[in-house]
Amino acid sequence: MPDPTPSTDADFRLFVQGVSDYAIFMLDPSGHITSWNTGAERIKGYRPDEIIGQHFSVFYPDEDKTDGKPARELRTAVAEGRVEDEGWRVRKDGTRFWANVVITALYGDGGELRGFGKVTRDLTERRTAEHALWESEERFRMLVQNVVDYAIFMLDPSGRIMSWNAGAERIKGYLPDEIIGQHFSVFYPDEDNLAGKPAGELQAAVAEGRVQDEGWRLRKDGTRFWANVTITALYGDSGELRGFGKVTRDLTERRTAEQILDERRRLLRHLVHAQELERRRIAWDVHDDSIQSMVAVGMRLQLLAGRLPEEYRQTLIQLDEAVRGTITRLRTLVFQLRPTAIDRHGLVSALTDYLRDVVTGWGLAPTLHHDELAEEPPTETAITIFRICQEALTNVRKHAKAGSADIHLSTVEHGTHVRVVDDGIGYSREQTEAQPLEHFGLIEMRERAETASGWWTITGAPGDGTTVEFWLPTIIRPEVTP
Fold it and tell me: How far apart, in whole angstroms, are the C-alpha atoms of residue 442 and residue 411?
């Protein structure tokens, strides 16, 4: 059988020479380069005739050479058989690359040191990616750690606390060394612990991926705060449960503000209800008493006009016309006191009737635009809107010298947006403030809007008409129980 060694050695050299992903070359015992493969030329940039015979320290940055690193690595390879290192190396053009280097001591059959085998791999792209990932993770860690408005921390699969950020310390009052390792149920009131709520929330997070809750939680000092809590189940690459991420926000101030707002809205409902009851009582009294009395007077005047001599008849006719005019004004007053269409048909119907039956009689051409009104507001809000529009139109009648007035209703941001626009002589703030009685109507409109948790404004310029604009919330929040 022929000796396979020469062919095998030649094949091996051919293999090493052709490898392009690794720089594979030989050093003599003093560290001078004796061979050079394709991968070495590609990675380091030198042709064989440029580098063979030079000392391998040429690949090391100046700081490593000053530190004696090349010689030290050769000594280590001799002492331990091989040495592996990662660090910066230098190409022919002076640029640096991140290299994984293995240097192996090579011995002859008699045990003498023949030199070293050196394998270098360019890991610059991998290191760049790893560094970018590390920086991203570090930024995220710093972000989480320094957030103060949210308590963000980790739980192990059993619910024990593994991490603690600045927000958790601020909101819950515990230092990291006081709370890490404890079970997160320490934050729940006794009634929730007795009901098994902490364990139930972890089970729900496992079953559904995450669970969100609002309720009372406890600080270190035993005081309660109203918290919004999100618990998310966290899984490893192989699908095993690694623990939970828990984010808690202190909503005590918001809840208190909502309760105050709810109370204000309840008071507004009571106030509007009381006002409308009183207006209804007055309207009924005027309708059932004053108007009926005036109607009776008018009928008697008509009877007398047919019985008295001619010289008195004209006087009675004038008195009858005055009575009729008074009855008309009283009926208008009744309508203004209580627009019953709001109860029966809502705001749009009430404003339509008011514009047709009252405003048109003032010599104005009114128009109601309500195509952008998505839904009718609640009765209390509708009444407030009607009253502000009523006052705005009364001001148009008294002061604007306008020919038309348009009302625009639209639904904006869970509320009703209203604009009352006229084409009159315009609005002058200075002149209005100089006339307190006229200014009082503006104050009344603003107070009505702000009492209903809305806003009100008036704009315009002399000769360009006036716009009264306001917004009222139409969604009444449910009452919050403690």
Answer: 23
pTM higher than 0.90 for the full model?
A: no
The number of beta carbons lying within 10 Å of the beta carbon of residue 256 is: 12
Rounded CA gap, 59 and 34, in Å?
15
Each residue's pLDDT tens digit, 192-219: 999 999 999 999 999 999 999 999 999 9
Copy the structure tokens of residue 253.
């101030």
Show the beta-strand stretches assigned E in 276-380: 365-372
How confident is the model over 336-349, as a mean pLDDT?
Answer: 74
**Which band of pLDDT confidence, cut at 50, 70 and 90, is reported for residue 480?**
very low
Task: Work out the angle at residue 40's Cα, subtended by the Cα atoms of residues 37 and 29, and round it to the nearest 5 degrees.
Answer: 75
Give the separation between CA 117 and CA 103, rounded to whole angstroms: 6
Mean pLDDT of 141-149: 66
**Residues 6+ away with beta carbon under 8 Å from 201:** 211, 213, 229, 231
Looking at every residue in the chain, the average pLDDT score rounds to: 84
DSSP string for residues in 159-203: SBB----HHHHHHH---HHHHTTSBGGGGS-HHHHHTTHHHHHHH
Which structure tokens are listed for 42? 């590609």
pLDDT digits (tens, 9 = 90+) for 407-441: 999 999 889 999 999 999 988 765 555 454 456 77
Q: Tokens for 161?
A: 């606390």
What pLDDT score was predicted for residue 482? 36
Using a CB cutoff of 8 Å and minimum separation of 24, what contacts does 398-403 make?
398/438, 399/424, 399/425, 399/438, 400/424, 400/425, 400/465, 400/466, 401/425, 402/364, 402/465, 403/364, 403/365
Both tokens of 58, joined, read 């040429």
Distance separating alpha carbons of residues 174 and 220, to the nearest angstrom: 6
Regarding predicted confidence, which is higher, 71 or 379? 71
226-240 tens-digit pLDDT: 999 999 999 988 889
* Residue closest to 159 by CA, chosen among 99, 246, 42, 219: 246
Count of residues in the chain: 482
Long-range (24+ apart) CB contacts under 8 A made by 439-448 are: 441/391, 441/394, 441/395, 442/395, 444/391, 445/388, 445/391, 445/392, 445/470, 448/384, 448/387, 448/388
Both tokens assigned to 277 = 């009851």
pLDDT of residue 409: 96
210-218 and 224-235: which strand pairing? antiparallel
What whole-number distance in Å separates Cα of residue 368 and Cα of residue 460?
A: 20
Q: In the sheet that 404-412 helps form, which strands lie side by side, from edge to edge? A: 365-372, 404-412, 415-422, 466-473, 455-460
